Amino acid sequence: MTEADNSSTFDSKAFLARLTTRPGVYQMFNNEGNILYVGKARNLKNRVSSYFRASGLTTKTMALVAKIARIEVTITNSETEALLLEQNLIKQQRPPYNILLRDDKSYPYILITDKDEYPAVRFQRGAKKGKGRYFGPFPSGSAVRESLHILQKVFLIRQCEDSFFRNRSRPCLQYQIKRCSGPCVGLITPEQYDSDLRHAIMFLEGRNQTIMEELGEQMDAASAALNFEKAAELRDQISRLRQVQEQQYVSGMQGDADVFGCAMQAGGTVVHGLFVRQGRVIGSKVYHPRVSIEESPADVLAAFVAQFYLAGVREIPDHLIVSYELEGREALEQALSEKRGRSVSIAHKVRGERAGWQRLAQTNAEQQLASHLASKQSIHGRYLALQDLLGLDSLPERLECFDISHSSGEATVASCVVFDRNGPLKSDYRTFNIEGITAGDDYAAMHQALTRRYTRLKKGEAKLPDLLVIDGGKGQVAQAMEVLDSLQITEVLVIGIAKGPTRKAGFEVLVSGDTGQEQVLQADSPALHLLQHIRDEAHRFAITGHRARRGKARKQSKLEGIPGIGPKRRRELLRHFGGIREIESASVEEIAKVSTISRALAEEIHAALHPEH
């Protein structure tokens, strides 16, 4: 190891004069001994000299050089060895001038249990404690949820917990909405279930065409045996699987690939990753790396790819496709291959479907950067703060918030507003007219709205959110947790935002759905501002819906909604009595005198107009 003199003014000429030309790693420190930057080089003398040239440096690089008080170098046997050491040092020290990624706490998998007669398929994050076969890791929780939804919809494989499964006496809601075959109560034999499970595993392995062929043969056999009901079931399953294939980009490429595009402008950098397994795009993810002295998208990608795979425990695929040629590509390929134990290729000049993936990743990176810059100081900063507050491994992509509005129990309406990373997603807003509850029972109203919303989401009508925000305290949050538990939705985080003792903005209390713990944030917290924004939007939308429903109800005739009373009979009643008050005052016998009204219908009209009797 070589070390520069520790002085207030760094003598670059003297240091460079005795610096080796061999490969290695250099570490730059300031006067206080704090690390500034870690880099690697094939030729240490040439690389370090580039920081001290007379011209051509960027503003950020000049700012770095001005702070250097000491440089330490470590000589290595090869550039590949230098690259591995560099990434270890970056991970350990997290220098402020290096490109830095947020640490992922854990990686999501799909687990298929193997200890049960009817195995389950589940979302699994973190340590592989469960016994069974794992698929993954997936790039994000949303990619896992999408695959689990397909397994439920196409193959009807159960996803419930074992305790829930073993204590059923009748099929649950999943069976009723055709997302499970009902093994808990013996509605499918173990042999039939094993066949469906085998097809689900084949789907996760990317063997879709083989599944289609097998199902087609089974359909033909059932039809030949005159078992037309079974043939129809298989036909529908083939149709659902074909729809999935049409929605997902599937290729004939062998092996796996990760595809990265990069967009860079003053004020922001975005890397967009597209993840392909067995020719199937299983997900994508946006990264906002902290960038300091990288001068181009190619520089960013080179640093990003090295840190993404070498400083973490991520799965390394057969192929990496990038949108720019990477400096030091050969060394990076060798380092990745050594870590993986198998050959890894990196390419930027690609054709055919690979070029399509490459364009898609780059286009997404450019669009994400445009959105990021447009709202960088407000929305993105608030999402980052919320991510830190909740300890999430990635930025939440979708938030939903519910609120209830009524006037003394009249015309109760629940609102659901949706935010994505760009803020309010108004096309996904929904309102729910609440019926059949005790007037003013907000808990029952919240329970009904959440049940209706998340039953639909389980059917695939929309994406599940990463975070469910409830406008209310522990009682309302408990309703949300009960609904999600009954629907076996475990991957949605729930928090409540309740007004504090003063009921003033800035003093709200956050309630955790998992633990019930309460937390008060600082009034200037960006995370609190985001939660206040979505809460206020839900409140506004609920009031708007309530007022519309109340206004409609007050304009509506009391005769509307009575079974058997259409426009013609309403006209006859009003013509006979002269007005609604006179009809309310009439007896059953008087109402029955109207030519189009029978005695039985008159009794129904009288009962509807006098519900208290």
TrEMBL record:
Signal peptide annotation: none
Residues annotated as domain UvrC family homology region profile: 259-484
Predominant location category: cytoplasm
UniProt keyword terms in alphabetical order: Cytoplasm, DNA damage, DNA excision, DNA repair, Excision nuclease, SOS response
Gene3D superfamilies in alphabetical order: 5' to 3' exonuclease, C-terminal subdomain, GIY-YIG endonuclease, UVR domain, UvrC, RNAse H endonuclease domain
Domain UVR span(s) in chain numbering: 209-244
Domain of life assignment: Bacteria
Domain GIY-YIG positions: 21-99
SMART domains: GIYc, HhH1
Subcellular location: Cytoplasm
UniProt cross-references to HAMAP family, sorted A to Z: UvrC
Entry similarity comment: Belongs to the UvrC family.
Subunit-level organization: Interacts with UvrB in an incision complex.
Function of the molecule: The UvrABC repair system catalyzes the recognition and processing of DNA lesions. UvrC both incises the 5' and 3' sides of the lesion. The N-terminal half is responsible for the 3' incision and the C-terminal half is responsible for the 5' incision.
Name assigned to this protein: UvrABC system protein C
Organism: Marinobacterium zhoushanense
This protein's encoding gene: uvrC
